[in-house]
Amino acid sequence: MPFGAVVEKLAAKEENLIPLPYTVKGMDTSFSGLLTAAVNLLKKGEHKLEELCYSLQETAFSMVTEVTERALAHTEKKEVLLTGGVAANKRLQSMIKAVAEEHDAKFCVVPSEFAVDNGAMIAWTGVLAHTYGMVTPIEESFVKLRWRLEEVEVPWVT
């Protein structure tokens, strides 16, 4: 069973929120230290595993939901699509759906059989880039940490 599915299953058994690191600055989130804090609290033996799974999930998803709501408010988009492996999580779906509804936006989630990882989304972006004549020579390709979304060239979006 994937880690996220285990956390979701254990989190469903609890409602006691334990404070964990929460970092949102504008449209940026930082999950650095979140899992470590939960693991350290578990090792101390002061909290049940279910409490920490609930808190880990609620904290991470609250950050994602906050940024999603901010994006909807700023862009006035009328659709939200939840993708990636985490899209299978029912709690995240309910949180993002609530925000979408508050902003009169349509909420969509990929079918669970496609909510495994970002491979298909990365491949589709490559298809779009190729279609629009974007080419990156292999010697110029690299992972760019902290690449801001507003810096990414996307000529297919108007």
Describe what you observe in this structure.
A hairpin with a 2-residue loop joins strand 1 (24-25) and strand 2. By secondary structure, the chain is mostly helical. It has helices at 3-11, 34-44, 49-75, 90-102, 119-131; strands spanning 24-25, 28-29, 79-82, 106-109. It is globular, with a radius of gyration of 18 Å. It has a single domain, classed as Nucleotidyltransferase, domain 5. It is built from 5 helices and 4 strands; from the N terminus they run H-E-E-H-H-E-H-E-H. The strands form 2 sheets. The protein has a two-stranded antiparallel ribbon with strand order 1-2. A two-stranded parallel ribbon has the order 3-4.
Query: What is the CATH domain class?
Result: Alpha Beta
Major sheet size, sense and barrel closure: 2 strands, antiparallel
**Count of beta strands:** 4
> How many distinct helices?
5
Shape: globular
SSE order, one letter for each helix or strand: HEEHHEHEH
Integer tally of domains: 1
The CATH topology corresponds to Nucleotidyltransferase, domain 5
Q: Examine the secondary-structure arrangement and name the CATH architecture.
A: 2-Layer Sandwich
